[in-house]
Design a protein that fits this description.
The chain is built from 7 helices and 13 strands. It is of the alpha+beta class and about 290 residues long. A 7-stranded mixed sheet has the order 3-4-5-9-8-7-6, sandwiched between helices. A 4-stranded antiparallel sheet has the order 10-11-12-13, covered by helices on one side. Helix 3 crosses helix 6.
């Protein structure tokens, strides 16, 4: 994998990019300048970019590559997403300037640990946005797969995987980011990087920076474990005390979010008492886990 987790004493892995290695290489330089609205991308050497002009949904594109045996680090960049969807199957309305990408991963640990990558990705995108948007712009995370800008949903994270034993044969992490002005209606009130962040960041810039920050954050995860990342995520958690309806494989559950525990699970207060929803339970329907 891009990172191998515990034991932390052996965290210096040959295939893990330390911060001083986050520079472009021949493998990561892809010229897409002949396509409208794109320019040459400079990505870290750990990524192999596959540019798709148009398709229904970027997660499906990533899954297709994973099923074909794509190497870890294969990064699908979808320039036009025609029928994107949310985790619940609702329509994700995409504009021509928005970012849609999917990363193929080969986790080496159990499912519960592998799903912490949702937090790794959220923190990575959060760091990118914090650098680009105007100072004092509110930035929050919504458990476990959304990033909010000015209290509107600016990005969603989605996962798909092939279970194998206690872990995954492969895991695909998809990212949808509203960059340009919003188009259509979103499941929740939406926001966009350029308009709500009052900046000129492009999808090309966001993709480059996300890849670099993802490697930095996964490096920290490998060296220090989940706790420091979870602490950073909690500092921007938007919804403690919020009454929320959550769709699970067994049906919808509801309650007031009380905390995100040390495993990244959400603890809700409901009419029937305390209710704990693990990451595996949340993502089970799309991961095919038993």
């Amino acid at each position: 994998m891009l990172a191998s987790l515990p034991d932390h004493a052996a965290a210096a892995h040959a295939n893990l990019a330390a911060p001083d290695r986050l520079r472009p290489s021949a493998r990561g330089v892809t010229d897409v300048s002949d396509r409208p609205g794109t320019e040459t991308l400079l990505l870290p050497r750990e990524f192999e970019l596959l540019t798709v002009p148009s398709a229904s949904d970027v997660l499906d594109c990533g899954v297709e590559q994973a099923r074909r045996g794509a190497d870890e680090g294969t990064l699908v960049w979808l320039l036009e997403q025609t029928h994107g969807r949310t985790r619940n199957g609702e329509r994700w309305h995409a504009g021509p300037d928005d970012l849609h990408c999917a990363l193929v991963l080969h986790p080496e640990f159990d499912r519960a640990t592998s799903l912490q990558l949702a937090f790794v990705a959220a923190l990575s995108l959060g760091a990118v946005l914090a650098e680009q948007v105007q100072p004092m712009t509110t930035l929050h995370y919504r458990w476990p797969d959304q990033v909010l800008l000015r209290h509107g949903k600016v990005a969603q994270l989605r996962l798909a995987g092939a279970p194998a034993g206690e872990g995954f044969e492969w895991l695909v992490l998809a990212l949808d980011v509203n960059v340009g002005p919003l188009s259509g209606e979103h499941e929740f009130a939406g926001s966009a990087v350029q308009t709500d962040g009052q900046c000129e960041a492009t999808r090309e810039l966001l993709l480059e920076d996300f890849c670099r920050y993802f490697l930095r954050t996964i490096n920290e995860w490998a060296q220090r474990g989940f706790a420091p990342l979870l602490q950073a995520w909690r500092q921007r958690c938007a919804q403690l005390g919020e009454y929320r309806l959550v769709s699970l494989e067994r049906g919808e559950v509801e309650g007031t979010l009380e905390e995100i525990d040390d495993d990244g699970a959400a603890v809700f207060a409901s009419a029937g008492g305390a209710m704990r929803i693990t990451l595996e339970a949340y993502f089970r329907a799309v991961l095919g886990t038993p």
